[in-house]
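Is this the right way to post structure tokens for a design question? Let me know if I should format differently. Anyway, here goes:
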């Protein structure tokens, strides 16, 4: 990769010295691929991601297998991961049935995934907005009692394909419910990738009136090419945890207008350039995404993967 390295810089004032990348490619990415990979290939993907220096590699989902057949092998995947090591391998859990499966598989970190809108709650969870917390609250409580950490995703924070622009008050309300139920952290999801930096700044300002900025993450899909700009706005607002997916894989099977997540390579390239530490080795991440693209039979949508290939 000679000739492509940026000069060493120190973070601009107001920017964090380091960022924690929450890698979601093996979950958010693979849940939306038409090619269903073998458990063995998923395990190799996750191990390779961890070896690049990523501290958190979201591994799979313990959802109803009929809803997301791509991740129906969650038990097999978790059984092969080195769960006692420093890397964390969180999984999605919607309900108590999922929690029992995750616990039996040795999972220590879970994430519930609430919706900010009525329509997506129904389509993604088969619950109304009012009902979703009846499902999540016991999961959060029980997971905490068992010593697990619990992240609360909030989906459709900026726009919804059926309902249009989403009021900030709806997002703030769901964040409040997740925190009241015991979540340790919140990730604000732009599920369909429509947000712009001004909106990001405004929502974070509202949410951080009661959510500690250290407990807040951002999760941008890149449908309109704004994910990196939105991340920059979030960093300026003080956020230090950013979700992304290797190679820009991703989408949501229950929101067809959602395309891939912010690519981890694009994020690392920007953060390296800003002098913000991530601990991630970009060259080996690019190699991993190129290998996975071959397995999936389609090129990576990440600009940085293509540029460095
Ligand atoms: P439901 O159909 O209403 O299920 O699904 P139910 O509660 O009526 O239960 C029916 C049967 O399913 C029962 O079996 C349960 O035991 C079984 P029966 O008694 O009839 O024999 N069942 C399960 N089996 C295994 N594991 C389970 C489980 N749960 C129930 N966990 C449910 C409700 C929430 C389960 C379903 O809607 C579901 O699985 N949804 C998940 C959808 C999903 O994974 N979407 C993608 C992730 S969200 C996302 O990508 C957004 C995010 O990235 C952030 C962003 O981008 O904004 C996070
Ligand atoms: Mg997502």
């Amino acid at each position: 990769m000679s000739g492509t390295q940026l000069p060493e810089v120190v973070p601009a004032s107001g920017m964090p010295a380091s960022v924690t990348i929450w890698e979601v490619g093996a979950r958010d990415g693979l849940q939306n691929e038409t090619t269903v990979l073998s458990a063995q290939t998923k395990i190799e993907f996750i191990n390779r991601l961890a070896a690049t220096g990523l501290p958190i590699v979201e591994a799979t989902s313990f959802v109803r297998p009929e809803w997301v057949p791509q991740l129906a092998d969650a038990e097999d995947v978790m059984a092969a991961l080195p769960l006692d090591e420093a890397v964390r391998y969180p999984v999605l859990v919607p309900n108590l049935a999922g929690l029992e499966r995750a616990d039996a598989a040795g999972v220590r970190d879970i994430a519930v995934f609430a919706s900010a809108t009525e329509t997506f709650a129904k389509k993604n969870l088969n619950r109304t907005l009012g009902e979703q917390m009846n499902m999540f609250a016991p999961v959060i409580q029980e997971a905490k009692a068992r010593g697990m950490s619990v992240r609360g995703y909030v989906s459709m924070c900026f726009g919804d394909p059926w309902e249009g622009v989403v009021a900030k008050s709806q997002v703030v309300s769901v964040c409040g419910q997740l925190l009241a139920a015991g979540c340790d952290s919140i990730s604000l999801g732009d599920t369909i990738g429509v947000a712009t930096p001004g909106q990001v700044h405004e929502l974070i300002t509202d949410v951080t009136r009661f959510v500690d900025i250290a407990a807040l993450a951002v999760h941008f899909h890149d449908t309109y090419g704004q994910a990196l700009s939105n991340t920059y706005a979030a960093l300026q607002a003080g956020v230090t945890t950013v979700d992304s997916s290797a190679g820009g894989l991703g989408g949501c099977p229950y929101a067809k207008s959602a395309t891939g997540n912010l690519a981890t390579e694009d994020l690392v390239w920007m953060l390296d350039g800003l002098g913000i530490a991530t601990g991630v080795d970009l060259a080996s991440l690019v190699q991993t995404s190129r290998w996975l693209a071959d397995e999936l039979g389609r090129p990576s949508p990440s600009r940085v993967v293509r540029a460095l290939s």
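Format looks fine. Someone answered above. Worth noting: Residues 129-145 form the longest helix (17 residues). Residues 28, 189, 191, 219, 221, 252, 261 surround magnesium ion (ligand 2) (CB under 6 Å).
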